[in-house]
Design goal:
The protein has a single domain (4-135), classed as Cytidine Deaminase, domain 2 (3-Layer(aba) Sandwich). It has helices at residues 4-20, 44-47, 54-66, 84-93, 128-142; strands at residues 27-32, 35-41, 74-80, 97-102, 121-124. It is built from five helices and five strands, in the order H-E-E-H-H-E-H-E-E-H. Zn(2+) binds at residues 53, 83, 86.
């Protein structure tokens, strides 16, 4: 029941919330022991803050929930590959696993040859079509 797809659907729900707020539709959830401890979506327009990416919001929320800055034994599910800023924060958090829906070939950290914490497992391509579709639809509506 608690598969990568199960939790990615929750992240996709967060992306849909962002879409409804006219935010770039990226969503994520942080899971610990099969329990969602944080969820967020992009809030850069709402908060007028370029650092208010879904991942940054979720990292802060999860750390507050756990009472410490490290997200060891946690998994972040995110609909779009994290950017350089978010990958740095994820690395510092020492998160155990990052599950990515769709790759971001232009702005994502992987093509920039950046690494997360050495112990962080990375999985890509979970619900890739659904995760990339919502972003494409958002930007299509802007043109």
């Amino acid at each position: 029941m608690f598969t990568d797809e199960y939790f990615m659907k929750m992240a996709l729900n967060e992306a849909e919330s962002a879409f409804e707020k006219d935010e770039v539709p990226i969503g994520c959830v942080v899971v610990s022991n099969n329990r969602v401890i944080a969820r967020s979506h992009n809030l850069t327009e709402t908060l007028n803050d370029v650092t208010a990416h879904a991942e940054m919001q979720a990292i802060t929320s999860a750390a507050n929930f756990l009472g410490g800055k490290y997200l060891i034994n946690c998994t972040l599910y995110v609909t779009l590959e994290p950017c350089v800023m978010c990958s740095g924060a994820l690395s510092w958090s020492q998160i155990s696993k990052v599950v990515i829906g769709a790759r971001d070939e232009q702005r994502g950290f992987i093509n920039k040859n950046l690494k997360l914490h050495p112990k962080t497992e990375i999985v890509t391509g979970i619900m890739e079509n659904e995760c990339s579709f919502i972003v494409k639809e958002f930007f299509k509506s802007k043109r």
